[in-house]
Each structure stands twice: as C-alpha cells, then as structure tokens.
TrEMBL record:
InterPro entries given in the database record: DsrEFH-like, Sulphur_relay_DsrE/F-like
Source taxonomy: Bacteria, Pseudomonadati, Bacteroidota, Cytophagia, Cytophagales
Pfam families: DsrE
Annotated signal peptide: 1-19
Protein name: Uncharacterized protein
Keywords assigned: Signal
Keyword match Signal: yes
Bilayer-crossing regions: none
C-alpha cells in the first residue's frame, strides 16, 4: 500500500511539472482568419484568451484575409475593447493588403491596433519557416 501511495504521488508530481512547462513555455502561434462571421469571431477571441491563460508567454499573431479582415474594422466593432486588451497582452493582428485591394478597402477603415502585410499567405509561410505553429481559425 505504501508503494502505491508513493507511485500516485510521483505521478501527480510529473503531471504538475508537465503542466508548469506548458504554461511557462514560449509558444509561437500564427492564426489565419478568413471567416467574417461575428459568431466565429467571438469564439476565436475566447480561444485567444484561453491560450493566454494557459500559456501566458506565448507569441501570437493573427493574420486576417478575405472576410476575416472584418474582425478588425473600425465601424461598429463589438469586439474593439477585447481586441485592444489582447493587443496589450502582446497579440499581433495583421491585415492582408491584397484583400484590401480586392475588396476596395482602405487602411483607415481599420482599428489602429492592426498592422498590415503585403500578402497573408506569404506571412504565414515566413512564420512557419521560422518555426511558428500554424492554426486555421474560425468556421
């Protein structure tokens, strides 16, 4: 019985140590958001908060393209305060300039927290070449 208790205690310590490693690690995650649906945006923002809670040292970039750029529009944006908070926690949001051209949109139509990249796909490739983990976000 004594050996069983020691074994269970050891297993608990190993699980706790692994959880600590995950939360203290610096993960590099790049998300691609192409979905323009506000329900998808709400769920995605919740996922970003969950990652920061579980692994606060993570480096996160959100690349928006297509309809996904709507997440970062200035006009009547229900997520503006949440996005500002995420930006303050180090999450980078960028918009594909090719999308802007294709949709006849202007940079001034977007929240000032957003950056811009010439090509979303190229940005994803560059980050993956540097070891970042790619995740397709949204619906």
């Amino acid at each position: 019985m004594h050996k069983l208790i020691i074994l269970l205690l050891f297993i608990c310590l190993v699980i706790q140590a692994k959880a600590q490693v995950v939360s203290n690690s610096t993960h590099q995650i790049i998300f691609q958001l192409t979905d323009g649906d506000s329900l998808s945006h709400s769920k995605f923002i919740r996922q970003l908060h969950n990652i920061l809670e579980a692994a606060p040292n993570s480096k996160i970039e959100v690349v928006t393209q297509g309809m996904g750029v709507d997440l970062l529009r200035k006009t009547s944006n229900p997520f503006e305060e949440q996005l500002i908070g995420l930006k303050e926690h180090g999450i980078e949001f960028v918009i594909c300039e090719n999308t802007l051209k294709n949709r006849s949109l202007k940079k001034e139509q977007f929240l000032p927290l957003a950056g811009f990249v010439p090509s979303a796909i190229l940005e994803l490739v560059i980050k993956q070449e540097k070891g970042w983990i790619y995740i397709k976000a949204g619906g």
